[in-house]
Amino acid sequence: MKGCGVQPEVNIEPEEGLLNFGNIIVGETYEKSFKIKNISSFAVKFQLMSQVFGIENRKKQVPFLMIPQTATIPARETYEVKIIFQPDFASNHFFDMLLIDIPNEIKPKSIYLRGQAHERQLSVR
User: Fold this and answer.
1) Taking the complete model, does pTM exceed 0.85, yes or no?
2) Short-list 95, 89, 86, 99, CA closest to 113
3) Measured CA distances, 54 to 35, 57, 87 (Å)
4) Quick one: pLDDT at residue 122?
5) Is there a contact between 81 and 65 (Cβ–Cβ < 8 Å)?
């Protein structure tokens, strides 16, 4: 018997794999998204896994909320993942390197999240 194996493969957008949230005010939220395109001829399931991250929020919520964290993408379809940056204190060290984990994928993809937060400046009259 001979067989031909198939392996899942995806592309991400932005291609460079960077989502920079810039500098926002503590307590506010900012949303961005990225896309995962399934270029395989069958559905693939992905899970976003944090590999390396910077500082954490002081309260229980995570600085980068992923919606969804896991899903299935039909063959040759594109799926949008929302990332919400929600810092609870001022810092320049919010980041997360996310692995887009797809079982049996040959070339794993990652996305780098980066954000900064500052306190609201009070204006003096």
Assistant:
1) yes
2) 95
3) 23, 10, 12
4) 63
5) no
